[in-house]
Design goal:
Blueprint (H helix, E strand, L loop, with lengths): L1 E7 L2 H16 L5 E4 L3 H8 L5 H8 L3 E6 L15 H10 L4 E7 L12 H4 L3 E7 L9 E5 L5 E5 L5 H16 L4 E6 L5 H14 L6 E6 H10 L6 E4 L1 H15 L8 E7 L4 E5 L18 H13 L4 H16 L13 H14 L2
Parallel strand pairs: 1-2, 1-3, 3-12, 5-10, 8-9, 8-10
Antiparallel strand pairs: 4-5, 4-11, 6-7, 11-12
Bound molecules: 1,4-dihydronicotinamide adenine dinucleotide (NAI), 2-OXO-4-methylpentanoic acid and magnesium ion (MG).
Family: Belongs to the isocitrate and isopropylmalate dehydrogenases family. LeuB type 1 subfamily.
Cofactor: Mg(2+); Mn(2+)
EC number: 1.1.1.85
Length: 356
């Protein structure tokens, strides 16, 4: 049983370190943990944001724990050398097309949400984001128009097979929840979205127990703030899912709380192969200052234990420890408190020991 650990850049290093303390505490028999470089760190040391050795490590593992990539000093590199290509490259190369991003209220945190407390305490939504297609992976470029202006362009498209497979993931996920699925698109304007909607409707015939509805993404952004409790499971494309999940994080209280799982079809001896990461980035504004909230990464580790290693009890132990530490009032700066990254790590470790 092998986990590849790819901390990456900025706070990716700090939050991954704290999550690994929880993994060590669990003392999983036969577990091998191997570190690899990604992002700006890998570019500086090995000349590429996703070196072949890292990709090989990822492929030979049962699961990947990923921190974050991104560094402002790399923002003017050629696109294929930028840190973000590491995570995009891993998602594509490993066929990780289904991104699960749960956003669930934590008791006691209602007042840290951007929403009114009575609205915030109800939120329990799973965003199922397609992760291998859309405008993120289409052809792109810049060109000079006939009138002499520069023009940037990015191709948005979805093949019906891509929509169909994420639809199945989302319907099955909804069946484990409240059997309600909202497909979010922009079908009033985009052909890509019209096909998305048509395929969602076709696939829904196979899931008569799941209630499917459709919402335009602009309305969904508004409804997520107005009445998040009306959502159960959301399925959406790569771009819209990226944006809506950051928004959902602030409905819960902080982007430092939201974990994610990126799954494909590959099964291992222990579960579904996947990559797990907080939904946030490398946060250059607070990197290296011991200020980042490591809880999103800890909760991503819990998802890894559940989906890739079949360790449900260990996953729940981490989730319970994080929730109880928050309820105890241990909070980082993102939640109006003063606990440092390592102090939050200490508190969760202590809690884990007490609830073993
Ligand atoms: N999967 C990945 O590796 C991702 C990488 N990025 C990259 O990260 C870099 C920074 O991007 P931003 O747009 O600033 O997004 P970001 O998510 O890194 O940060 C946005 C804001 O949230 C705060 N924040 C994020 N995570 C936090 C945590 N755990 N605790 C406390 N505060 C936290 C940051 O301090 C910042 O003010 C860019 O290079 C971007 O491309 C962004 C998103 C995802
Ligand atoms: C940095 C990216 C490639 C994407 C992103 O923001 C995300 O996956 O949350
Ligand atoms: Mg994002």
């Amino acid at each position: 049983m092998k986990i590849a650990v790819l901390p990456g850049d900025g706070i990716g290093q700090e939050v991954t370190r704290e999550a690994l303390r929880l993994l060590e505490l669990l003392e999983l028999p036969g577990l091998e943990v191997e570190h690899g470089e990604v992002g700006a760190t890998a570019y500086r040391n090995q000349g590429h944001p996703l070196p072949e050795a890292t990709l090989e490590l990822a492929r030979s593992s049962d699961a990947i724990l990923f921190g974050a990539v991104g560094d402002p000093s790399c923002d003017n590199l050629e696109r294929h050398l930028r840190p973000e290509q590491a995570i995009l490259g891993l998602r594509a190369a490993l066929g990780l097309f289904a991104n699960l991003r749960p956003a669930t209220a934590f008791p006691g945190l209602e007042h840290m949400s951007g929403l009114k407390p009575e609205i915030a305490r109800e939120i329990d939504v799973l965003i199922v984001r397609e992760l291998n297609g859309d405008v993120y992976f289409g052809d792109k470029g810049t060109r000079v128009r006939e009138d002499g202006q520069r023009e940037g362009w990015d191709m948005m498209s979805y093949a019906e097979s891509e929509v169909r497979r994420i639809a199945h993931t989302a319907f099955r996920a909804a069946q484990t929840r409240k059997n309600r699925l909202t497909s979010v698109d922009k079908a009033n304007v985009l052909e890509t979205s019209q096909l998305w909607r048509d395929v969602m409707i076709e696939v829904s015939a196979e899931y008569p127990d799941v209630e499917l509805d459709h919402m335009y993404v602009d309305n969904a952004a508004m409804q997520l703030v107005k009445a998040p409790a009306n959502f159960d499971t959301i399925v959406t494309g790569n771009l819209f899912g990226d944006i809506l999940s950051d928004q959902a994080s602030m409905c819960v209280g902080s982007i430092g709380l939201l974990p994610s799982a990126a799954l494909g079809e590959r099964q291992t001896d222990y579960g579904t192969f996947g990559l797990y990461e907080p939904i946030h980035g490398s946060a250059p504004d607070i990197a290296g200052k011991n200020l980042a909230n490591p809880m999103a990464t800890m909760l991503s580790l819990a998802m890894l234990l559940r989906h890739s290693l079949g360790r449900e009890a260990d996953a729940e132990r981490i989730e319970r420890a994080v929730a109880e530490v928050l309820a105890d009032g241990v909070r980082g700066g993102d939640l109006g408190g003063s606990a440092t990254t390592t102090e939050i790590g200490d508190a969760v470790v202590t809690k884990m020991v007490s609830i073993s």
